[in-house]
Structure formats: structure tokens, C-alpha cells
Design brief:
16% strand; 229 residues; 6 strands; 8 helices; 6-stranded parallel sheet; alpha/beta
Length: 229
């Protein structure tokens, strides 16, 4: 299977709240464990040779959740970018935040810039964290940027359009794994997922195990990826 390891794996980390509720625990505890799982899964992927891991941490629709929950999720992001930044750096991992960064607090934007600068030369792997991310919004933002750049319509093609996406330099996701039993993309990586394999795992994100990842990779290795050819 080593020759069939995906280069880019993306995760829709679903089920944190349901995991907590079914155990009579506060919702925030599910998010805390989900954050710890994100770090763990990232390491499992990198040690298997995956070059890029992208996680869907906070969507543009998630602002509609309670103020307490939103505040806690932003605190987890702050923690990753500050208190635990050295841990990511020591693992030689590059951190990228994708989404509408301009809508975040100045404090978070400053931390994002500092974290990306500190890790930009790391080579072991890339961890993209999608915050305030929406696939439709990414396409709208790219379109606006192209118009503002004065590009003539005749010059617009797929290669040029990709350059205006949130993370233009990385490969498109080979596989998108969604936990929690739901079977939809929920607006995740709409442009880049055109030929992604979609794998739906019944376990909630906090329960996602290394053997679950192995099963997903085994399934992926058996796929015939023709990309429309």
C-alpha cells in the first residue's frame, strides 16, 4: 500500500458535539478532545508519508452556534498558534490557516501571521487548518481577486483560477474523510474536491483511531483514479 498513500488527505472532523452529548458531557469537552485528535491524526498521516493534511475546523456557518462555543473554538485555535506552536515547529511541520482570515480578531490574525512565518520553511509536512472557511466563499473571493487584478476574461482558465484560491500551491485532496456518519461535503474544498475520493466513517471524530485511518487508506489504495480519462 506504500505506493498508494495519498499526497493530500482532508478531514471533515464531524461528531464532537454528538460524542459529548451521548456521554452526558459538556459540548466543549467534545471539542477539546477533537482538537487533541486533530494533532494525533496529523502525526499518523505525516509518518505514513502524506505531504498535506487539511482539517475543517470552523466553517462560515459555525458563527451561528452559541457565543460560548464559538469563543471556545477560537481559544483552541489560539492555543494551537501560540502555546503549541513550538511543538508543531519541532516536528518540522508547516502550519497554514485557510479561510476568510480578515473576519477574525486582530489578535488571532497576528498569531496566524507569526505561526505561518515561523513554520514556512518546515519540510516534514503541511497542516492546513480551515477556519471561517466556506467552499462557495473561497470561489467568490477568488473571483473578486481575479477581477481586482485586471485579468482579461480570455486569460482565465483552471490553472489561473487555482492561483487565487486560499492555498494555491498545494496539491488538491486525493481523499476527503468525513467522520460522524454524515455523507456530504458541507461546502468543504468545493473547487479542489472535483476528483477527490470521498470516504465516510461512522465513528465520531474523537473516536477516530489509527486503525480507522488504515482502513481508509486501504480503501483508497483499491480505487481506480482515472480523473475522467
Amino acid at each position: 500500500m506504500a505506493n498508494n498513500i495519498p499526497k493530500h488527505v482532508a478531514f471533515i472532523m464531524d461528531g464532537n458535539r454528538r460524542w459529548a452529548r451521548e456521554r452526558g458531557l459538556p459540548t466543549l469537552e467534545g471539542h477539546r478532545l477533537g482538537y487533541e485528535k486533530m494533532k494525533e491524526v496529523g502525526e499518523w498521516c505525516i509518518k505514513r508519508g502524506v505531504a498535506v493534511v487539511t482539517v475543517y475546523a470552523f466553517s462560515t456557518e459555525n458563527w451561528q452556534r452559541s457565543a460560548e462555543e464559538v469563543k471556545y473554538l477560537m481559544q483552541l485555535l489560539w492555543r494551537a498558534l501560540t502555546n503549541e506552536l513550538n511543538a508543531f515547529h519541532e516536528r518540522n511541520m508547516r502550519l497554514r490557516i485557510i479561510g476568510q482570515i480578515s473576519a477574525l480578531s486582530q489578535e488571532l490574525r497576528t498569531a496566524i501571521s507569526a505561526a505561518e512565518r515561523k513554520t514556512e520553511r518546515n519540510t516534514e509536512g503541511v497542516l492546513n487548518i480551515a477556519i471561517n472557511y466556506g467552499g462557495r466563499q473561497e470561489i467568490i473571493d477568488a473571483t473578486k481577486a481575479i477581477i481586482e487584478s485586471g485579468v482579461h476574461s480570455d486569460a482565465i482558465n483552471e490553472d489561473l483560477f487555482k492561483k487565487y484560491l486560499y492555498a494555491p500551491e498545494g496539491p488538491e485532496p486525493d481523499i476527503i474523510i468525513r467522520t460522524g456518519g454524515e455523507q456530504r461535503l458541507s461546502g468543504f474544498l468545493l473547487w479542489g474536491s472535483a476528483y477527490s475520493e470521498l470516504y465516510f466513517e461512522k465513528h465520531y471524530w474523537p473516536d477516530f483511531s489509527e486503525s480507522d485511518l488504515e482502513a481508509a487508506f486501504f480503501w483508497y489504495a483499491g480505487r481506480e483514479r482515472r480523473h475522467g480519462k
